[in-house]
Description:
Largest sheet: 3 strands, mixed
Number of strands: 3
Strand order of the largest sheet: 1-2-3
Shape: elongated
Radius of gyration: 25 Å
Strand content: 5-15%
CATH topology of the largest domain: Alpha-lytic protease prodomain-like
Distance between the termini: 44 Å
Order of helices and strands: HHHHHHHEEHE
Amino acid sequence: MKENNKLIRNGSIFGIIGNIFLFIIKIIIGVISKSQAMIADSINSATDIFASFMTYIGNRISAHPNDTDHNFGHGKAEYIFTMLISISMIIIAFKLGFDSVYNIINGNKLIFSWKLIIICIVTIIVKLLLFLYTKYIYKKTDSILIKSNMMDHRNDMIITLFTTISILFTKLDIYFLDGITGLLISIWILITGIKLYRESYDVLMDKALDDESTKIILSIIKKYHNIKKIGNIYSIPIGYKYVVIITLLVNGKMTTIKSHEIADNIEKEIKDNIIKIEDVIVHIEPFSK
């Protein structure tokens, strides 16, 4: 767990540094060249700094161990801060969509500049490196917080790629491509933001464990023939992992030691087989017909 938190923290720090660098060069070039497009892009980088900062703060809070006030730890902080990032994505999507429609209707023309092309290429390279790094971290940690950061880097990289293509097309006096491309990308970012929001919302509202994991739990329990009946199976999300509470009914004449041995074995086997489960609590009850 500590290793995962360290990876996520490093990913957020590199994101903050990278986005600050991009913000500075974009705002300088934008002001010097008087390019509204580049100034707007620098504002987008400023929001990326916010997203990386939210990842850092969310990870620091979620890394705190459980205590007397928070018995299951602080894992849900990841989902609160992921929700904030998803909302920022949705706002950016509406802003980009509005600007794109405005440009299509009013026929605003991008002004070609090699400075803008160079900045776009630098942005793509930096964002590609950040995307690959956060993707590596996400595969290691399965953290929704780093996933939202990864998707943010990917979105920015693709936006800048199409912006570069649009700027190059202005050399051929083709200007409409910028608005159309921007509109399509804004829709894509909106869908991504909504998906992240829903995923965060589900966990914060204590959505139950998925059906596939529940089937695995049932298959493990059914291997123990001393169990007469399976009672309730409840699951509580704590961050990106779950605590599972199971009620099992056994022969009332079974010794306490034997019933606890079965419970301990089931708890261990479930945790060993399902990585997303942090803890299992098995209640043993006497069975009566």
